[in-house]
Amino acid sequence: MRERKKFWADWGQSLSDITLVSDSLRAHPPSGAWFLRVRRRGYQRMLVIHTQFNLYYFWEKRWFFVAMAVGAFMLTLPLPEGLSRDAMIVLTMSVVATILFVTEPVPLPTVALLIVAGQILLLKIDSTTVARSLMTDSVLFIMGSLMLAVAIVKQKLDKRIAWLIVKVTGTKTANICFGISVVSGVLASFIGEHTVAAMMLPVGIILISLTSEDVSKVRGLAAVLLFSICYGCSVAGIGTPSGGARNAIMIGYWKEFFYDPTNPETHRFLIDYLKWMTYAYPMFLLQLPLVTVVLFFTFKPEYRDLTRPVARLRGQVRRDGPMKPGHWVTILFFILILISWIFLSEEIGMGTVAIIGAAAFLIAGLVKWEDLNSGVNWGVVLLYAAAISLGVQMKDTGAALWIAESFLRLLKPFGADHGIGLWISVSALTTGVTNTMSNGAAVAVLGPIVLKLAVAAGESPIVLGFVTAVSSAFAYLTVVGTPACTIVYASGYLKTTDFLNVGWRMVLVSVVVMLLAASVYWPLLGA
Amino acid sequence: MPLEPKPNGETEEVRAWRRKRFRILVCVNGTEESYQALRFAAEIGRSKECDIILAYVRPTDQGLRTGGLQIRVARENMLDWGLELPGVKYLRKGLELLVEAGHMEHEWDSIHTHTDVWGDPLGDNKIEYQHEDGKSIVLKLKTAPDIVSGILDQYELGPYNLMALGQPSRWQGEFRSFWDAGVAQKVAMLSPCSVLVARENSQAKGHLICTDGTERSLDSMKRAAVLAHHCKSPITLFTVSRDHESKQQAEETINNARSMLSELGIGVVAEKIGVGDPTEQICHAGEDFAMITVSDSGKSRLKRFLVGSVAFGVMGRAKTSVLNVR
Question: Which of A161, A389, A490, A525 shows the smallest number of beta carbons within 10 Å?
């Protein structure tokens, strides 16, 4: 009763004077007095505390502290048998770097800076020596390729490419998807997947949106078109050394680990642009039609024919007028760079060709330095430089060999310590790692271990190196697996579960193709 | 309600002005259920004192994952092609829905606002349609590190009376929600104002307003009843007794609630009493209604974890839309 009285004291009103604003749902003050703020619960409380005391910082960076704690703990452990003090330090640095690569509590280039600092402070290596180890031909090549990619994207050739695709393929959905995969793939095999995915995304989206504005009516079509772009790019990344930084990293490792200028036997470990292509390009070509088959097997596009959207696309492209001189010069430069990579890289290095190419674009005025400066992620260059440098330390200190031997002992009971069993194990390990971190970082971390594993198991380092580099492209399962996946996902047409749905099939197909190449084709090339 | 023009000055002035309005924040994400939330908002927001803010929150682009040329290039390319981002499309559809519902029949002024957001080429974009009587409809494309913090940040920019969202894709138990809560659940947990979780239930009509007889619950019941009355929606009162012995107490609660509303001049079409587990009973009874209204108990997260919360249980398990009144 008392309750009721209080109620009417507050609510001594009738229907005539009640209003929605004052008598219906209340708008509570967003930032009231301090005690109100303190009363906020859970996450909201955390956000408020964050703004005032920044304690949230510790939560946000928790993985950084976990990684550091793991590192400190590992350094206090007694040395395992067969592992030197320096090797233990390098191993610890690799474990810490791996945790940071996967969880990303700090921007990734920070890991590179920490690796450099760790080498100087913990391993007591002279700073000039460390600095020198950061820049190799592979790093120069990664840097040059990223600059070339920006220069080419800036020319806005995407509409021409779209026009070319539909001109050749006609209007059947399956043909267009295959056309998109082929064009994305061939381009990505030379200039890197992220660039091509960014360039081709509008082509896919325009075809989808010209078909229907209602997203729910074109779910299947969107999936086949967009996955044709990203998987076309992904399978192509292995095709040539310039397809992805991971390839350049592996080439760098082969040279660093096995090449001895005084021993002609070791010359086979100098893998140049053409040699890589001979090994990997047929694999990519074999996978291309399989991408379309897998996609059409998984998704059922609602429209089998895209006559209407193609006609509208044609209209859009026509409005842009004929090709401009800049476009022709870009194509000429692109062809010249390719020819130089194939025929000159053995003599002057792939990195040199890439930076001369970038310089040519700047000299011709096709791209401004400001564009290159803002378009290239210099952090990536630094990251790979430091990762390669750490990889070399893993070899020099014997850490890589120790892990390789331990891993081999682990595989022995399953009979997977040689031949196809070992290939599958290495491939599974790389696929697992690459789906959780950038594929370049995966190869940088696993490369030294796998190459030493090959030596310890009496297998060909070239075959196992290729198995690692190629498997690092199998990041089909997650949105963040490869740049191409992240880019097409950003269009908003795909769900994360779509990647899992089609991804496992792609992994299966790719593994079979790779094992076929490893057991039949590569031995023919003398690997 | 004075229909004074909206001030253009300091934030505090704008906030004070906003507190005199009934403001509804509708978060759209392209799903049919999120448009259902908008339909509810359109129904409530017919009067001059209501503002409707449609928001789409887009996570900020990721950086290094894309290995050099970030998603930024893809976005810039898309804009070059004249393509709309998904968020823009969803907001436009939302606006069309409001136009269809007869919200924008007269002349409206529009104001475009852009706010730069570091690391994202598009930033925050807003179009505000203002009517001369002070009513406004806002379309907001917001960028935030994650969707939940974006929605909560939007609340900080100006208080709202109601936040409306579409059906959650997942709704976890209290324990699992520590690390795996969906957007709607997190917003429901953290929002300072009432939250509406909308679900498709086109056949159903009327509001089922639940009360357990406590002061807090009765206050929420009245506020929900004013809202239902404003929407001209029939009201059914509902309470649950744990067992048959305490049924008489439940009857008292219902009578008490009905007489409170009738003295306010708000009619009730029916009253119901369920016996058993409150969450189950409410969910079951609410299946035939367009909306279930529950009162937020104001329990802390720890308390909810230990003893559970009927309001949260109903929000997660009901087959129809649920309004959690705070």
Answer: A525
Structure tokens at B204: 């159903």
Rg (CA), chain A: 27
pLDDT of residue A376: 79
Q: Kindly report the number of other CB atoms within 10 A of residue B140's CB atom.
A: 22
Coil, helix or strand at residue A147? helix
Phi, psi of A481 (to 5 degrees): -60, -50
Edge-to-edge, what's the strand order for the sheet holding B109-117? B109-117, B120-130, B136-144, B50-59, B22-27, B162-166, B194-198, B321-325, B291-295, B207-210, B235-241, B270-275
Asked if B127 contacts B138 with a C-beta cutoff of 8 angstroms, the reply is yes
- Cα–Cα separations (whole angstroms), residue A34 to A37, A43, A52, A321, B160: 5, 17, 11, 63, 20
Which residues neighbour A483 within 8 Å (Cβ) at sequence distance 6 or greater? A193, A194, A197, B65, B66, B67, B68, B69
Name every chain A residue with its beta carbon within 8 A of the beta carbon of B265. Answer: 14-16
Q: pTM of the predicted model, to two decimals?
A: 0.63
CA distance A202 to B82: 9
Are A150 and B189 a contacting pair at CB < 8 A? no
Rounded to 10 degrees, the C-alpha dihedral A242/A245/A251/A255 comes to: 130
Q: How far is A86 from chain B (nearest CA, A)?
A: 31
Asked whether the beta carbons of B175 and B143 are under 8 A apart, the reply is: no
User: What sign for the dihedral angle of Cα A14, A17, A20, A23?
Assistant: negative
Residue whose C-alpha is closest to residue B274's, from B244, B296, B317 = B244
**CB proximity under 8 Å: A 412-441 to B:** 438, 440
- The backbone torsions φ and ψ at residue A239, rounded to the nearest 5 degrees and listed phi first, read -60, -50
Contact between B128 and B120 under an 8 Å Cβ cutoff? The reply is no
* Per-residue pLDDT tens digits for A174-216: 888 999 999 889 888 888 777 788 778 878 888 888 888 777 7
Residue spans of alpha helices (H) in A104-134: 108-121, 127-134
Sort out which chain B residues have CB atoms less than 8 A from A245's CB and list them. 67
Residue A123 one-letter amino acid: L
For the stretch A124-181, pLDDT in tens is 889 998 888 888 888 888 888 888 878 887 777 777 787 888 888 888 888 889 999 9
Please spell the DSSP secondary structure of B180-208, one letter per residue: H--HHHHHHHH-SSEEEEE---TT--SEE
The pair of structure tokens assigned to B82 is: 């004249």
Span between the terminal Cα atoms of chain A, in Å: 92
Q: What is the pLDDT of residue A67?
A: 94
What is the rounded radius of gyration, in angstroms, for the C-alpha atoms of chain B? 21
Residue A313 contacts B, CB cutoff 8 Å: no
**ipTM value of the model?**
0.72
Residue with tokens 């949260």: B312
Contact between residue A485 and residue A447 where contact means Cβ atoms under 8 Å apart: no
Q: Flag if B1 and A109 touch (Cβ within 8 Å).
A: no
Of A19, A89, A525, nearest in space to A275 by CA:
A525
Mutate to test the interface with A, among B40, B48, B77, B189 (most CBs of A within 10 A): B77
Element (H, E) at B165: strand B162-166
